[in-house]
Amino acid sequence: MNTFQDLGLNQDLLNAITDLGFTKPSEVQEKAIPILLNTETDLVALAQTGTGKTAAFGFPMLQKINIDSRTTQGLILSPTRELCLQIANEMKLYGKHCKGLNVVAVYGGSSISEQAREVKKGAQIIVATPGRIKDMISRRLVDISKIEYAVLDEADEMLNMGFYEDITAILSNTPIDKCTWLFSATMPKEVSVIAKKFMDNPQEITVGNKNESTNNVSHEYYLVNARDRYNALKRLADANPDIFSVVFCRTKRDTQKVAEQLIEDGYNAGALHGDLSQNQRDLVMNAFRKNQIQMLVATDVAARGIDVDDITHVINYQLPDEIETYTHRSGRTGRAGKKGVSMVIVSKSEVRKIKSIERIIKKQFDKKDIPDGMYICEVQLMSLANKIHNTEINHEIDKHLTSINNLFENTTKDELIKKFFSVEFSRFYNYYQKSKNLNVTENFDDRDDSGRDYRGGQSNSTRYFINVGNKDGYDWMKLKDFLREQLGLDRDAIFKVETKDSFSFFNTENELKDKVLSHFTDFQHDGRYVNVEISENRGGGGRKRNDRNRSGRKEASGKRKERRSGTNSHNKPRRSGSEFKSKGSHSGSRPAVARRSRR
Ligand code: ADP
Ligand code: MG
Questions:
Q1: Residue 568: domain span
Q2: Mean pLDDT estimate for the chain
Q3: Residue to substitute in 207, 307, 327, 332 for testing ligand 1 pocket (most ligand atoms within 8 angstroms of CB)
Q4: 155 in the same domain as 29
Q5: Mutate to test the pocket of ligand 1, among 7, 51, 127 (most ligand atoms within 8 A of CB)
């Protein structure tokens, strides 16, 4: 087993490592650091979040730059302001014994002249978001013409966010013979394009199986009727009073809806998705970091940049369209050596996906029951008792003690305790006393299996058939990218992409139906007709697929297996979520959840 010393790091850095309490290098560090220290090479490194990538490029960069010079020699590009600040702070910690080191973060939304002043003092390393540094380059506030090392951190994320052109523009201001180090959690097509375009014969390292999940995370699934999804979510939260979680939904709309509903029901929740402004997202993320938000409801894309170490639970409110995404989700917890739980709420129709996920992550799921109401009451009661037990006494109360004592003169300690706890407990008890069992057995016939909408409404997405597939070089990712580019949509808008040999299926929200169909009318790509039609297959709008076949690919129509007899006629519109509401009580009043109790 390598130690940091074995990797060839100098004493200043080793001292910082001791101060930080890092005992041994992580895998990506073990692989990347010697390569970067010993050779002047370009590098592509693939490793999941939380694996210590910052130090993997940070230490070599700190060792290789000349700290006696004031020239900017290292540039680190990162997708968001949050990450930019985080990296700059980490770099300062790593380099705290390197006398004269100057690391400066430049990012949007903060004074550009202040940042320019910092740079001017002689920053050997600049950590930047693409937009801001491009701006500063064009205003000649930074000089990156003598860069020796450029890092593209979270490259997949930067490309997702549309920074391709900015990155191109930025790198065109740097010397050709610099070294470029690209770090990414995944390797979509765009990242390999970048690697080809900007890098010269890069060495490649991959850490772990790209999709394999860490041992710190346990995986659980809960089988409920689709219409009970939301109530199940609430119970999982209530049964874990100190929960600090990310709740994943599939679409921006669901994300917003679930978050709003949780807030209305009294939880400390927030939404994070691409329709929010940067400022709104910052507010939510800051609140989450400070534990003011216990349940962050997020889309997959929006959650990609989240680097919060102590998330206790990831809740898959809906499973992702592509099961590979599950690894990204569950990787939000169990970071930095801590334990985490990844929970999946599934309806009967999705339960087979659990098996596929198990194969991908090479881990078993535990099937668990949604806790019943009385169990939750007990958990909440004991959590409250513990909290009271650990509370420091506020002696401001002392002066009122006489009158309080008078009031309770004839109350025994026992009674007093019971009364005191009843204040909180009764609210939970009243809410949960008649609650039903939400669990279903695997052979229970649950017709409403769309799982699409927690309000149990009709499916609001359309499923399409497209006459290209694996044979034409498309896997789900490529097809999704192709459709996204063609239609000018964002990642969330196309889902349930499933490629077969010579044809494929995908979904969009119903509103996009006309746009999709008209775009692909008489549409040719690479010299052949690409044909998109509504599929009868589930999730579809129920319109019968027109059987014309313009593709010139005869086998396509014969092989459409996915057809299912029943369409949405089973999905009766159902009433909304809250058990509380459906019992006819007034809305919004959820019993007090453990609020911000953590730490
Ligand atoms: P990534 O960029 O891969 O998502 P980070 O570089 O942000 O990961 O590191 C995740 C966390 O792990 C940080 O809190 C970091 O300080 C810590 N860390 C990094 N390397 C080590 C190590 N060798 N030992 C212990 N903790 C580490
Ligand atoms: Mg990182």
A1: 461-579
A2: 82
A3: 307
A4: yes
A5: 51
